[in-house]
Amino acid sequence: MPFRALGLGPNLFKAIQDAGYTEPTPIQAAAIPQILAGHDLIGIAQTGTGKTAAFTLPILSRMEATPNRGTRTLILAPTRELVVQIEENVRAYAQYLPLHMATVFGGVSEHPQIKALRSGVDIVVATPGRLLDLMGQRCANFSGLQYLVLDEADRMLDMGFLPSIREIIRALPVKRQTLLFSATLSKEIEGLTHEFQRAPKLVQIGRRSNPAETVTQFVYEVPHHLKQSLLVHLLRDPAMNMVLVFSRMKHGADKIARRLEQAGIKTATLHSNRSQNQRLRALKDFKSGAVRVLVATDIAARGIDVDGISHVVNYDFPMHAEDYVHRIGRTGRAQAIGDAISFVTPEDRSELRVLERFIGRGIVRKQAEGFDYAAAGPRLQSPSAPSRQGGTPQGRPQQRSGGGDSRGGGRGFGRYRS
To answer: Which end of the chain is more exposed for a tag (fewer CB within 10 A), N or C?
Structure first.
């Protein structure tokens, strides 16, 4: 189905052509007609499948067809990086439309944001924490709001934003179109949608817990004290030319970056202790190729939308299975191929088993060819995994595959503000 068949206006179609799009992705083809018809919607699809365009394009089309004054669209997202990403996409799609927009997030001065909100821009893209602060100062007027989008909704709830979201929604008109999009959506969180939506349509592309099929997944079993050395060893492979490394802790990310820089590998860091300008600069340098490796924490995982990431490395194994899906979804985007590498220590084995049950498949185990494991003693063994041969970025070492056919997993509720 071509984009022209979806019923979008000529100005939007021209912007789509400028962006190089030819045919809609499955989530776009399924969601856009439902949104154009005025339905509330729950959209579930893997990361990197075009969810932003799936809700942005039909909203812009409806706004163009019924011009009005004041703020008519509010898009809520969990992190500053995701807000900036959405803003870039909206500006590209709306370049031929007479619409104005503003972004609202923490870490920067609130004065330009207050000015923009009071001017009554057409579209606001915001993180819940900063927006609620400014609404408390009576800086925003949403009396004419028609469209509300909760993007990466599960992550916002996981990050403790549910009270803020409830308070924001209480200040919005009851009569509105509400769209909820996410890569994953647990049944518990889906049960909360009745608070925000009325008779929503459900569009689901693929299994809820599955990473993109274009991502090849590997596990490297390694003791904790050898992880830095193993990462440096793997990065000797020139095929690892655009690598996103996930650390569990902010100070851990800084330590990894320092070690890589000492090894001559250009590296940037992205976590909540970095200023907004530093975070934007890190993403810009990573996108441009000025740095080869970006080390990030989970707080930034949902806001990284960079084409061409060759590898994602879970330096610290994620505590929750759904975080794994989101992390490795940074590669293999838009049907591109990519590799996801996870370092697993003996302490991580139970989380690995939970993950394999969650995604319904085993993940291939590997050893890095040429790496000295001697300091760790005998090779770590996984009792449930048979051996078989296969290649790695360093050659063709031994590998073992685990298994799992049931679903499980956990979810943590943190307290973050963007």
So the answer is: N
At 238, is the secondary structure helix, strand, or coil? coil
- Count of CB atoms within 10 A of residue 62's CB? 18
Whether 3-204 shares its CATH topology with 215-401 is answered yes
> Which helix (H) or strand (E) segment is 394 a member of?
none
Helix (H) or strand (E) segment spanning residue 225: none
- Tell me 306's DSSP state: -
- Say what the pLDDT of residue 154 is: 79
Pair of tokens at residue 20: 């190089």
pLDDT tens digit string along 210-247? 565 678 899 999 999 999 999 999 999 999 999 999 99
- Residue 361: CB atoms within 10 A of its CB come to 17
In sequence order, which ranges of 108-245 are alpha helices (DSSP H)? 111-119, 128-136, 153-158, 162-170, 187-190, 227-234
* CB contact at 8 A, 329 and 359: no
What's the confidence (pLDDT) of residue 164? 93
> CA-CA distance, 253 to 296, in Å (whole number)?
6
Distances (CA, A) of 248 to 217, 225, 370: 19, 15, 27
Could you tell me if 145 and 172 are in contact, meaning their C-beta atoms sit under 8 angstroms apart? yes
State how beta strands 338-344 and 101-104 pair.
unpaired
The predicted-structure confidence for 294-311, as pLDDT tens digits, reads as follows 999 876 555 566 778 889
Angle at which helix 80-93 crosses helix 276-288, to 10 degrees, equals 60
Residue 262, classified by CB atoms within 10 Å of its CB into exposed (0-12), middle (13-18) or buried (19+), is: exposed
Query: What per-residue confidence (pLDDT) applies to 393?
Result: 43
Overall residue count recorded for the chain in this entry: 418
Distance CA 294, CA 267 (A): 6
> Burial of 202 by CB count in 10 Å (0-12 exposed, 13-18 middle, 19+ buried)?
middle
C-alpha span between 344 and 181 (Å, rounded)? 31
Domain locations in the chain as residue ranges:
3-204, 215-401
**Torsion angle (degrees, nearest 10) of CA 285, 289, 290, 295:** 60
Q: Which fold has domain 3-204?
A: Rossmann fold (3.40.50)
- List of the chain residues with pLDDT < 50: 334, 376-418
